[in-house]
Structures are given as C-alpha cells and as structure tokens.
Design brief:
Blueprint: H1 5-15, E1 17-20, H2 26-46, H3 48-53, E2 57-59, H4 69-79, H5 82-91, E3 97-105, H6 126-135, E4 138-144, E5 148-153, H7 164-171, E6 186-190, E7 195-199, E8 204-206, E9 213-220, H8 238-241, H9 248-267
Helix pairs in contact: 1-5
Bound molecules: 2-oxoglutaric acid (AKG).
Residues 56, 104, 119, 140, 200, 204, 206, 216 line the site of 2-oxoglutaric acid.
C-alpha cells in the first residue's frame, strides 16, 4: 500500500507525475498480462494492416469486442483494486471517474519515431489547450507489463504553457519535428510492477524499444466535462457490477452519464 498519499499528491501537483516502484507483485502483473495479451492478440488479428503500417496503441480494452465477460471482470477488478483506488483517490478525492484504457506497444515500422504531445492537443486549438491545462484534470496510470524504456516527460508542464523550444517541437514549426529531443525532457525508465502516474496534458512521449506493452488507465475529475469521451461498451454491465469488489470508479462514470443524458433532455425538450 502507499506510504504517504499526501506526498504523492504534492509530487503530482508540482511535477505532474510520480512513480511508485514495484507497486504490484509478480502474481498481479502476470495475471494482468495474461488477460491483456488475449486482447492484444485478437486486436492485432482484427487490425492487421493498421498494426503493421502505423499503430502504436489500441484502446477500449475493457470493451466487449475482444474479451469475454470473465476477463473483463478480472480487468475491472484490477482497475478498481484497493491499490489502484488508493493512488487515484490521493489525486482525485471526490468521486473520481473511469474514462478509458489504452495499450501501448512498439510500432512494427522501426522508422516510426516517438513524438512529443499533450493529449488535449488532439481535441483543442491552442487556446483550448491552455484552458484545458488551467482547468481540468485527466490522469494516466501506466502499468508496464514488461520492462520498458518508459516515458519521457517535461516536469511542470501540466500547469504551464510550452517554452519556445517545446512549442516548436510539439507543433512542428520553425523546422522542428515532434520527435526532436527536448532539453527539458526527463526520461523515466519503467519495470514490470512499477506504476507511473502522469497528467495527460503535460508534454510527454512514450519511448519505443525493448518489448514494451503498457496498460494505461485514464481517470478524470468529475468537475471536468469528459463524460462524452466514455464509450458505454467499456463500462461494466449490471451483472458484472455485482462481481466487482469496489465498483465506485465505474459507478461514478455511469452517474455522470445519466446526469448528462437528463441534462440533454432538459435542454432539448421535444
Ligand atoms: O507510450 C506511448 O507511445 C505514448 C503514451 C502516451 O502518449 C499517453 O499515454 O498519453
């Protein structure tokens, strides 16, 4: 269990990330790996061309397309385990909500380079990105299933805008490309069993290499307007909820979804 949740929260607040080394036991990781590999094999078969040509991640791992109900329940129980909830609640004490999962692996094409970004840049223009950084909070919890080179992060950028070097690289302007090195980057190598927690909106990149396969769990603060990003199929159904030891993380998302649908009906009466 975590020793000092307040310290984790302080580290996250000032740096935008923290790592807990060897947080998970070998048994926990090997059981999770088994489930995730089932998903990964089925997903690769179904997306063969995309996988071979350009993919470096998949998502919706908890959905019904590739995993059987018992494997999904196993995964839901890992995501909302006591260990995970302790970390999530150290950062988002009030009703944290589940958003999604992603699986990161090496691209097949060795020429494909790891690239700097903020997650919010795919949904917002520059002004919107600045607002997202100032106002909202999406947290990634990365669980590496094998030892990996890890992530490179720019500490502090969960709260501040890019400096000129960072901006030019991330936006690919003034002759820069997003795979160029940044002098402010900090490399965080990870081993199976470690947990890396980082802000989705800080400047970051995954480091390709070794046999990486990392499960990222995304959670959000219900103050932020993220519920539309959640795919219904990635949430447990009623029968599964009964088999999840502590389903609060998913229940919070379901409540937000219901509230958002009710709100939509009120705003758009027939
Ligand atoms: O590991 C990667 O390739 C990128 C990871 C990433 O961008 C993320 O987790 O948001």
């Amino acid at each position: 269990m975590i020793e000092d949740p307040k310290q984790l929260s302080r580290d996250y607040d000032s740096q935008g990330y923290f790592v807990i080394r060897q947080y998970f036991t070998e048994d926990e990781i090997s059981s999770l790996r088994q489930t995730i590999l089932k998903f990964h094999q089925a997903w690769k078969k179904d997306h063969q061309v995309f996988y071979e040509e350009e993919a470096f991640n998949s998502s919706l791992i908890t959905g019904s397309e590739y995993l059987a109900p018992e494997d999904r329940v196993k995964l839901f129980n890992f995501i909302s385990s006591t260990k995970m909830m302790a970390v999530v609640e150290s950062l988002i004490p009030n009703s944290p909500a589940f958003m999604n999962t992603q699986l990161f692996f090496n691209p097949v094409n060795p020429q494909q380079k790891d690239f700097w970004h903020r997650d919010c840049q795919y949904d917002h223009n520059l002004e919107g990105q600045q607002k997202a950084i100032a106002e909202t909070q999406v947290v990634h919890l990365r669980v590496p299933l094998f030892d990996e080179l890890g992530m490179e992060l720019v500490p502090g950028t969960h709260k501040r805008w890019d400096n000129a070097e960072e901006f030019n690289v991330r936006q690919e302007v003034k002759g820069k490309v997003s795979s160029d090195d940044l002098s402010t980057g900090e490399k965080i190598p990870l081993a199976a069993g470690d947990l890396l927690v980082f802000s989705a909106d800080m400047i970051h990149r995954g480091l390709y290499g070794l046999d990486r396969l990392a499960l990222d769990i995304l959670v959000f603060d219900p103050q932020g307007d993220f519920v539309d990003y959640v795919d219904d199929d990635c949430l447990p159904d009623m029968a599964m909820l009964d088999k999840i030891h502590d389903p609060r993380l998913f229940v919070h998302t379901m409540q937000l979804k219901t509230f958002s649908k009710d709100q939509h009906c009120l705003d758009n009466p027939k």
